[in-house]
Design brief:
By secondary structure, the protein is an alpha/beta fold. It has 10 helices and 17 strands. α2 links the parallel β4 and β5. α1 runs parallel beside α2 and α9 runs antiparallel to α10. The longest helix is centred in the middle third of the chain and has 26 residues.
Length: 378
């Protein structure tokens, strides 16, 4: 049994006023081809299918056109925090006729979220799919109940067919135990993370969505975020984590590989003095590069001077400037403890202290800062 895990498409998203529709259509076409190439039995889309609860007709057309091309594989889709539960769930009975299972809300009982993936009368996998839930407690309870039921079904299938079908969980959540910098980023949001460690021995693969970078959870290779397939952060300078995950269960083994997604829209970041920005932009034009340009410029030149010069330079070229930011010169902040650099919360607190911000104002700013951290990668 082979599955492909993806998430966080955010269909209908814009980047600084520019539609991502062409990128997203190209990704979905590429994904359709990958399903055929890998001969996948199952596609998992782990939430945030759309950018908003009220996606445009064009975004919905992308979605349904794609689903109509995936009939060779089962598809399991869950709603994320950006999705409308009713929009995802409404056509579920119709979608089942083409082997698409859409879980948008929790209106069904536990058994309704447990999906049997069958091929030629044999159960190949047992999928436990839960849409986004706002509290860690509800999320943990939902998965505990579903996985317990899946284990019951697994034993039943073994007794009848002598085959042990893998248990696959699908969720859209913030997991505890993220990798590296992400662990530090969510340190101040512990009350909003879900501890999945109790499922590590019970679940054969946990397909996660919500975090836009691909990573494992609790160093468990089979508990993974696939990350978003296209760049979501307008100032992101690299694409090393844009991928989908292919998982194969074969002769008692679990084989996991990462497939990098192509670059569907070239997004170039340039930062520095005006001379540096001008030179690098000119070099891009001479080399024939095409793409969107995001510029952050420092120096004494005014914003209008920078904009006029660069717009004139890029006129009738293959690069399009979609963002210019004039960086203000600020005094460097002394960090007394290296540990303060390791978490955004500590560093932000030192910033507030260094600026002599009043305590009552600090509380409001810290609350807003934590909200930004929580939503930054949604």
């Amino acid at each position: 049994m082979k599955l492909i895990h993806t998430s966080d498409w955010h269909l209908g998203r814009f980047l600084l006023g520019k539609s991502r529709a062409e990128e997203q259509a190209a990704f979905l076409s590429w994904l359709s081809a990958l399903i055929r190439e890998e001969k996948a039995d199952l596609l998992i889309a782990a939430g945030d299918i759309f950018e908003t609860h009220t996606p445009s007709n064009a975004a919905q057309k992308l979605y349904y056109d794609f689903l109509s091309r995936t009939s060779s594989a089962y598809t399991v889709i869950i709603g994320g925090n950006h999705d409308s539960p009713s929009l995802i769930a409404a056509p579920k009975n119709l979608l089942k006729t083409i082997n698409v299972y859409a879980v948008g809300d929790l209106s069904e009982d536990i058994e309704g979220g447990v999906i049997l993936i069958e091929r030629d009368g044999v159960v190949k996998a047992i999928v436990c799919a839960a849409a986004y839930l706002p509290t860690p407690q509800d999320t943990l309870k939902r998965f505990s109940d579903m996985i317990a039921y899946a284990e019951y079904k697994q034993r039943e299938i073994i007794s009848v067919h002598g085959v042990k079908a893998p248990i696959i969980a699908v969720g859209h959540l913030s997991a505890a135990g993220l990798d590296g910098v992400w662990r530090n980023k969510y340190e101040g949001l512990k009350d909003e993370t879900v501890d999945l460690t109790s499922f590590i021995q019970k679940v054969d693969y946990f397909a996660l969505g919500h975090i836009h970078s691909a990573m494992t959870v609790n160093k468990a290779e089979h508990f993974r975020y696939s990350g978003s397939p296209i760049d979501m952060n307008p100032m992101q300078t690299h694409r090393s984590d844009k991928k989908v995950i292919v998982v194969e269960f074969k002769e008692g083994e679990r084989l996991i590989k990462e497939v990098f997604t192509p670059v569907f829209q070239n997004i170039i970041n340039i930062e520095g003095s005006f001379d540096k920005v001008y030179y690098e932009t000119e070099s891009l034009i001479r080399s024939g590069v095409q793409g969107w340009l995001l510029i952050r410029c420092s120096g004494s030149e005014s914003y209008n001077q920078v904009k006029e010069s660069l717009m004139e330079l890029t006129d009738n070229s293959g690069v399009e400037i979609i963002h210019i930011e004039k960086l203000e010169e600020i005094e460097p902040m002394t960090v007394g403890n290296f540990e303060d650099l390791r978490t955004p919360n500590r560093l932000f607190q030192r910033f507030l202290d260094a600026r002599n911000i009043a305590q009552e104002e600090q509380e409001e700013l810290i609350t807003a800062f934590n909200e930004i951290l929580r939503t930054l990668d949604e």
